[in-house]
Amino acid sequence: MKEPARVSASVQFIREHTKLKPRVAIILGSGLGDFADSLPERTTISTEDIPHYPRSSVEGHKGKLVFAALDEVPILAFQGRIHFYETNDLRPVLYPIYLAHDLGIEFLIVTNAAGGINRTFNAGDLMIITDQINLTFARLVANRAERSVARSIYTHSLISLAEDVAVANRIAVRRGVYVGLKGPSYETAAEIEMLRRLGADAVGMSTVFETSLAASLGMRVLGISCITNLATGISGNRLSHEEVTEVGRRVRETFARLLTAIVTEIGGRNSEGRR
Ligand code: HPA
User: Fold this and answer.
1) Contact between 139 and 255 (Cβ < 8 Å)
2) Annotated catalytic, 113?
3) Whose CA is nearest to atom 6 of ligand 1?
4) What is the pTM of this model?
5) Tens-digit pLDDT profile for residues 206-232
6) Is 39 helix (H, G, I), strand (E, B) or coil?
7) Is 229 a catalytic residue?
8) How far is CA 27 from CA 68, 125, 265, in A?
């Protein structure tokens, strides 16, 4: 079976389980999955039950699609993503994006956990992604990526929207360039210094493929990194597990407030991202 037929079969299954027609999809990064558990009147579908949906090899990854209305805006939240390093195959990484596109999603919000490279960043910061560097040494096939070369992957009006919403809600946010590496191991101090000189503000192991495909399919794309730690060599002291957990707890609440406010604001926009 070809990919479009597989995606159609997945969509058909989903349509049999929910009447909700989401406009906004949110990919929840590592440690940020909780957000979907508090959504009111949600329909949760396990990815295992969806025909043709790829399986994650990482144990404990939830793999759920959560459909809900957030302040009357119909959304789809993806809990648990598949990383490129898990399979060395882009298809399972991109499947959720094709699915979102087939479901009629107009806006994609991609979130991730990332290491802070910018020396002014702190653990616990939230960073609105302005652009990305794909250093995985893998690219989408040319015909899919063509359009994203011509314009930016991240939608300018959504970056402004997110920054305005943050100010209005008194949430401090950073902005910066996300560099995607394949991983799965963390970087050396020399690698982080190289990435800093290349213009990266934060580093992670996801996001770059999903966003570039979504943009090439015509979705409006927003990215938010949660800086869970300072990257290797940026901080002199090693963060303890307790500190990281504490940072995570504190950020989760702020992250949920920011995301909710952004989705509410997007709900009042047309598919171009304009009021
Ligand atoms: N490096 C790469 N990926 C990450 C990091 C990091 O320091 N923190 C969270 N994801």
Assistant:
1) no
2) yes
3) 115
4) 0.94
5) 999 999 999 999 999 999 999 999 999
6) coil
7) yes
8) 14, 19, 18
- 226-255: pLDDT as tens digits: 999 999 999 876 656 666 677 777 899 999
Q: Determine which one of 41, 240, 241, 242 is catalytic.
A: 241
- In angstroms, the Cα distances linking 255 to 21, 43, 62, 189 are 24, 22, 19, 28
The secondary structure element, H or E, covering residue 93 is helix 90-102
Contact criterion met (CB below 8 Å) for 32 and 111: yes
| SS3 state of residue 115 | strand
pLDDT computed for residue 123 by the predictor: 92
Which residue of the set 206, 212, 216, 225 is catalytic? 206
Active site residue 17: no
φ/ψ of 202, rounded to 5, equals -150, 150
pLDDT, tens digit (0-9, with 9 covering 90-100), for 52-69: 999 876 655 669 999 999
The per-residue pLDDT of the chain, averaged, comes to 90
First to last CA, the chain: 41
C-alpha 61/C-alpha 79 separation (Å) is 8
Residue 37: helix, strand or coil by DSSP?
A: helix
In this structure, the strands spanning 126-134 and 174-180 are parallel
